[in-house]
């Protein structure tokens, strides 16, 4: 069934949202809801279809074209299609790397546009932001080096004629620049304050992947980012309101991140003891799966 659906997508235009939306969703779930053996075959089918990949290229580019100032906050049919496109490409990135599948057509993505979508948001719906962050996580995990996606943008060809103080760090973090990193971190922190469950999960996951990428490229920068004093204020903000418990998935994952990178100015022994005390008093069997998993990671890291 993948063959006719792929061919159908390849004959569509990005404006054919009523047809493309369910088709891309079918392709996405075909990748995720199958056995590993069938998954590898499915990836090969999708990546061998040049017309599908060309269509996906057009869909991704529409993200920057379909952004009028009066864009509604709700998810329109166009935005829903963009979500499906970004999620499918992120999945293809992941599985192409896992199975080392042959690529017949590359996709070109502007890194500056992707970062600006998260940094400035521009009234983009939450689900679209989450989808773009999924893609950003995928390229970060692959160090911006993929057979499927070619990253372009103003920082992909650094100039040697810019003697700025942070030039050495920018070179180490290439294709990211230090200013982009700090802007992205601040924006992720601000998005966390919205306390939307889906958004919080995506933001924390993106922050984790970003710091891991920085740690590989430049440990000093990673430790500097992880120890920003604003993180402590963010934790207090997340713990304010109705649910003051430390046993919230996003809080536990943030705490794990700070413990991993030894950010003692963000999380102290007192907070660690409080979490362990809350865990000791809780009924572990009744905790939601996401909370139990986050608690396991935190205790393992401690």
Mean pLDDT: 90
Q: Strands across the major sheet, in which order?
A: 1-2
How many distinct folded domains?
Answer: 1
Query: How many H/I helical runs?
Result: 15
Main beta sheet strand tally, sense and closure? 2 strands, parallel
* Beta-strand residue percentage: under 5%
| Poorly predicted runs of 5 or more residues | 158-163
The count of strands amounts to: 2
| Cα-to-Cα separation, first versus last residue | 47 Å
Radius of gyration: 20 Å
Succession of helices and strands: HHHHHEHHEHHHHHHHH
Query: Given the C-alpha coordinates, what overall shape results?
Result: globular
- Helical fraction equals 55-70%
Kindly name the structural category: mainly alpha
């Amino acid at each position: 069934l993948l063959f006719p659906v792929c061919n159908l997508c390849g004959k569509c235009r990005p404006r054919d949202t009523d047809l493309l939306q369910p088709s891309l969703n079918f392709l996405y779930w075909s990748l995720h809801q199958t056995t590993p053996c069938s998954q590898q075959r499915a990836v090969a089918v999708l990546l061998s279809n040049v017309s599908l990949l060309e269509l996906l290229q057009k869909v991704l580019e529409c993200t920057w074209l379909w952004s009028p100032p009066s864009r509604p906050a709700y998810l329109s049919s166009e935005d829903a299609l963009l979500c499906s496109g970004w999620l499918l490409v992120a999945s293809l990135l992941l599985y192409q790397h896992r199975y080392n599948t042959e690529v017949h057509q590359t996709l070109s993505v502007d890194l500056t546009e992707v970062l600006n979508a998260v940094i400035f948001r521009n009234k983009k719906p939450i689900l679209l932001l989450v989808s773009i962050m999924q893609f950003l996580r995928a390229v970060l995990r692959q160090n911006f080096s993929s057979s499927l996606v070619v990253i372009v943008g103003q920082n992909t060809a650094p100039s040697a004629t810019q003697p700025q103080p942070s030039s050495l760090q920018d070179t180490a973090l290439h294709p990211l620049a230090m200013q982009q990193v700090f802007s992205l971190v601040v924006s992720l922190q601000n998005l966390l304050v919205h306390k939307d469950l889906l958004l919080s999960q995506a933001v924390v996951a993106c922050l984790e992947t970003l710091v891991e990428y920085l740690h590989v490229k430049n440990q000093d920068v990673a430790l500097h980012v992880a120890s920003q004093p604003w993180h402590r204020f963010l934790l207090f903000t997340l713990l304010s309101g109705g649910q003051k418990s430390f046993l919230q998935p996003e809080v536990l994952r943030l705490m794990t991140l700070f413990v991993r990178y030894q950010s003692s100015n963000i999380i102290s022994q007192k907070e660690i003891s409080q979490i362990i005390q809350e865990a000791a008093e809780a009924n572990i069997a009744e905790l939601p799966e996401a909370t139990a998993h986050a608690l396991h990671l935190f205790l393992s890291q401690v």
